[in-house]
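Lab notebook page, bench 4
Experiment: in silico fold of construct C2
Operator: M.H.
Input chain length: 211 residues
Purpose: comparison with the prior construct
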Amino acid sequence: MSINIAVTVARQYGSGGRDIGNRVAELLGVKVYDRELITMAASKSGLPEDSLDRVDEKATNSLLYTLAMGSSVFGNTAAGFNMPVNDKLFIVQSEIIGNIADRESCVIVGRCGDYVLRDHPGTLSVFVYAPTEARIKRIMERHSVGYDEAKDLMNKTDRRRINYYNFYTGRKWGKFDHYDLMINSHLLGIEGSAQLIADMAERFKEIEDQG
């Protein structure tokens, strides 16, 4: 029986991780799920999409008490009613990601995908990074901003991603032993990095299918 492969892509801001994830999906002939997950979460939860977009990949200072209690996020419980939108989004997106991985091979960008799918047998978790100066240059070019603004945006976005990941997973973002592959995108570029990941995913699928 053929197994579904889910490639999860965590990334430093400015490393090109999102572009790499999109290209990996093209090479594998599968769908990539990134910001689409916000729209899907809005549909599933009934919450306004713009509200979810504002808190996407942002942690709260709350405790995930409903998870600990095993209660439904959208059930008729006081806990579910009072839960911060950030927490609701994380839980609903996690459910959606799990369902996607069960039904199809895919690429998941961000959203703690490596953690959410940690028990999924076909998960290939990737962390994309790059040297600081290369990332700043990429941000400057993409957003047409100066050096200082690009550097500030890079640092703020990475801090947000670190806080989000560490808060919701209890792990340390970017720690090598949480990922199957750590890749410096500056060495091979977007295309080369994506090809390397796609080749690894295809080989991984072959091995898993052979049992």
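Observations: The first strand starts at residue 6 and ends at 11. The CA atoms of residues 124 and 200 lie 9 Å apart.
Next step: discuss at group meeting.
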